[in-house]
Amino acid sequence: MSKSPNPILPALGGAAIVMGGAYILADQFVVDLPAPARGAIEVVSAAQAQDTETPEPVDMAAADTGAPAQAQTGGLGLGREALPEEVAAWDIDIRPDGQGLPAGEGDVWTGEELYIESCAMCHGDFGEGAGRWPQLSMGFGTLDAEDPVKTVGSYWPYASTVFDYVHRAMPFGNAQSLSDDDVYAITAYILYLNEVVEDDFVLSRDSFGEIEMPNAGNFYMDDRADTELDRFSGEVCMENCKDSVEIVMRARVLDVTPDSDGGGIDLEGGGGASMQESAAEPEAPAEEEAAAEPAAEEPAPAAEEVAAVDPALVEEGAKVFRKCQACHQVGPDAQNRVGPELNGLIGRTVAGVDGFSYSGAMQSAGEDGVIWTEEHLAEFLANPRETYQGTKMSFAGLRSEDEIAAVTAYIQSESPE
User: Fold this and answer.
1) CA 70, CA 255: separation in Å to the nearest integer?
2) Which domain range does residue 152 map to?
3) pTM of the predicted model, to two decimals?
4) Is residue 271 part of a domain?
5) DSSP sequence for 332-361
């Protein structure tokens, strides 16, 4: 077996390889200081060399940062004082007495155009609400009902809240895109829908004080700290607080509680109650309508009148009906929605549609045998709330007799024979 003549050479070679690898790894994984940091170290070293002379360079360095004097002398040392224009951009709240209102003005009819363009897709053309979006108008006389309708007119105490909210958060998805004049106009239109102002009203800082909200007098200062706090300040039960839990009511809002063919919560032990409970209420008027069916057939000549209706009038009525279609349907496939379907309306008993829950005033009229004639319908469409006080219909009414005649002709023409 041969041996290396000089065993030191392989050992030196191995050591060189190990040291070379260590150098490469160190060069790869040791992070170099960035240039600004190296400069800072040099500046500090220079300052240390001269600190016996004067501390002025330190003061100048602090001044160069742009930090406010207050931050250097106290507090957290963060930020700076807000500029006046920045404060103005944040401080946009409007007080009940009108404090904070910007310059500008807007009238009701300009507000209608802006509202239809920017708001109606969610809140309806007349504030009646679309889908699950909130209703903005009417609802008067419902606050003490089982299902109160809280709107700008029926509930809100201050008009300033309308302006503030529209200005701050609307339109949805494009907040604060409206000019001050636009906000004034839309606010005026919403107040008009709630019969707070007339159709010729112009809203501005000067006229704001003229507005008095219908429900303002029913609000009072919060006294719960004095009257209720003690009752809720004791030891709180966190488990096993009740011996049993009983379901006493099911959600009645459409699509919130799922229905099935035989499902639902059985509240009466009758095999599954459904949302048709509310539909059972108007059965008595429906029976009376069936009993009065021969009398309802008397307006048969109306069919001939429908055939002779001016097509231009029907076309105009179709445009007017757009104000109604958020709640009502007419035609072969019409169904009850927020309001009842309108097929065969002329000659029908008031509150006579099966499966729809009417207001008490309309149910009483139906029980008395009141029939929808063209004259009675015109009276109702001109002022629904005055014709049937407590009606659930939030629509403020049609102002024009021509519109009433046109929409009546349209409803008659679309009703299946």
Assistant:
1) 58
2) 90-218
3) 0.44
4) no
5) TT---SSS---TT-TTPBTT--TT----HH
